[in-house]
Amino acid sequence: MADVVLMEVADRVATVTLNRPKARNAMSVELIDLLRRLVAEADARSDVDVIILTGTDPAFCAGLDLKELGRDGGGLKKADPIRPTTAPSDGSDARRQARGANLPTAKPVIGAINGVTVTGGLELALNCDFLVASDRARFADTHSRVGVHPLWGLTLTLPQAIGLRRAREMSATGNFVDARQAFQWGLVNHVVDHAELLPFCQRLAADIVSSDQRALTAVLATYEEVSRGTGAAAHSVEIRRAAEFQQGGVDPADIERRRQSVVDRGRSQVS
């Protein structure tokens, strides 16, 4: 059986690929565990300066595995909240913490968004430093349609990317945003032909590798501190509200009932 996450290192770039294509790279407990281990490994490697995060076609990530979630809570068991920490002098630990548990790295992460990116998958993408989208990419936040609460920073990172009113619209409707709209809204930096996605990201990664890494670490840490000046408080609010929501009861059977309607609705919007 193939690993559900793959990693390849070349030219100081680690390419990490979510690899459950038949499940649209949905985040099972197994996938979450392996993703965290491989990203932490890339973070610790002296021969890696940049990480590219992508998915095996046809999707980037369909969020938490709703079948698993509907059975026993599944990936919610691994939905560790983002917990702000005091930053050391180089800011690296603060960057790891700010990304959340799924991307435990201070190194630059390019999100190569190759297809549908939904809910927890959207949160994962938003915790990359910036995004490059294939022309096949589609984005949606369906937390409220599934009946779960964001816990990986979406209520902070999505408004930062596209503005509060657009973020509210995405979360309230669950509607899909295509790649061109995502570019116009500022969710992604570039939109490229599907076949050019990884080559384009590799060229950007090579540009990053050619920078002075010590200076880059300091600059990115400064961006983190400046852009998240109120981030710790915002993350704390999301963590508290998610805990309150879950204390009210998350019924796996109800989630399973909602799952197929969400899938069917999504298919009608991205076809």
Describe this protein's structure:
There is one protein chain. The chain has 271 residues and is an alpha/beta fold. It has a single domain, classed as 2-enoyl-CoA Hydratase, Chain A, domain 1. The protein has helices at 29-44, 66-72, 92-99, 120-126, 143-146, 154-162, 164-173, 179-185, 197-209, 213-227, 231-247, 252-270; strands at 5-10, 13-18, 50-55, 59-61, 109-113, 116-118, 130-134, 138-140, 177-178, 190-192. The strands form two sheets. The protein has a six-stranded mixed beta sheet with strand order 1-2-3-5-7-10, with helices on both faces. Strands 4-6-8-9 form a four-stranded mixed beta sheet. Strand 1 and strand 2 (13-18) form a beta hairpin. Helix 2 runs antiparallel to helix 12 (252-270), helix 3 crosses helix 10 (213-227) and helix 6 packs across helix 7 (164-173). The protein is globular and about 50 Å long. It starts with a strand and ends with a helix. The relative contact order is 0.15.
- pLDDT < 50 runs, ≥5 residues: 82-88
- CATH homologous superfamily classification: 2-enoyl-CoA Hydratase, Chain A, domain 1
Strand element count: 10
Beta fraction of the residues?
15-25%
Give the topology.
Elements lengths: L4 E6 L2 E6 L10 H16 L5 E6 L3 E3 L4 H7 L19 H8 L9 E5 L2 E3 L1 H7 L3 E5 L3 E3 L2 H4 L7 H9 L1 H10 L3 E2 H7 L4 E3 L4 H13 L3 H15 L3 H17 L4 H19 L1
Parallel strand pairs: 2-3, 3-5, 4-6, 5-7, 6-8, 7-10
Antiparallel strand pairs: 1-2, 8-9
Features:
271 residues; six-stranded mixed sheet; 12 helices; 2-enoyl-CoA Hydratase, Chain A, domain 1
